[in-house]
Design a protein that fits this description.
By secondary structure, the protein is of the alpha+beta class. The protein has 2 domains: 103 residues, Orthogonal Bundle (Topoisomerase I, Chain A, domain 4), CATH 1.10.132; 68 residues, Gyrase A, domain 2 (2-Layer Sandwich), CATH 3.30.1360.40. The chain contains 5 helices and 6 strands; from the N terminus they run H-E-E-H-E-E-H-E-E-H-H. Helix 1 runs antiparallel to helix 4 and helix 1 packs parallel to helix 5. Keywords: Cytoplasm, Protein biosynthesis. Responsible for the release of ribosomes from messenger RNA at the termination of protein biosynthesis. May increase the efficiency of translation by recycling ribosomes from one round of translation to another. It is found in: Cytoplasm.
Length: 186
């Protein structure tokens, strides 16, 4: 393993942390409807739990309503029950062969709770990034100990890894500011 390998590996891990944060932030409700909030709903489909997106077509009817159209008409009641029991605060209503899922408007208090949740997710991601930095620095120290590189190379490598860390922490802060603005917009 070389210093370049350590840097590359570190950058990949930090990128994965950012991707994970993006996925977590996408689940945070903002008052506008988006099909992503139903991603984790499981439906009993012929005896096995299946993701809702595998048994129905999810669409946006308008800014506050999600349309769920099952591929199999017999699944209407099962899907409606699954959405209701998913503890998302949603109350689906069947209308012919379509299930309408209105997303309720968020209160000011709920919006502030969402912002706290977003900041908590961001802090967890920053901790993850710092742990990745620590592991990378330990790998660099091991390279010096094994006499694969010099102490000067190690110091330069640590500086590069710190720059990567700063870059990814700034990216986390940027994502949080965007999501906070999105959540607080009425």
């Amino acid at each position: 393993m070389t210093i370049a390998d350590v840097k590359k590996n570190t950058e990949q891990k930090m990128s994965k942390s950012i991707d994970s944060l993006r996925a977590d932030l996408a689940k945070v409700r903002t008052g506008r409807a988006h099909t992503g909030i139903l991603d984790h709903v499981q439906v009993e489909y012929y005896g096995s739990p299946t993701q809702l997106s595998q048994v129905a077509n999810l669409t946006l009817i308008d800014a506050r309503t999600i349309g769920v159209q099952p591929f199999d008409k017999k699944m209407l009641a099962v899907i409606e029950k699954a959405i209701r029991e998913a503890d998302l605060g949603l109350n689906p209503a069947t209308q012919g062969d379509l299930i309408r899922v209105p997303t309720p408007a968020l209160t000011e208090e709920r919006r502030k709770e969402m912002v706290k949740l977003v900041k908590g997710e961001a802090e967890d991601t920053k901790i993850s990034i710092r742990n990745i930095r620590r592991d990378a620095n330990e790998s660099l120290k091991k390279l010096v100990k094994d006499k694969v590189c010099s102490e000067d190379d190690e110091r330069r490598g640590q500086e590069d890894i710190q720059k990567l860390t700063d870059k990814f922490v700034a990216e986390v802060d940027k994502l949080v500011v965007e999501k906070e603005k999105e959540v607080l917009t009425v």
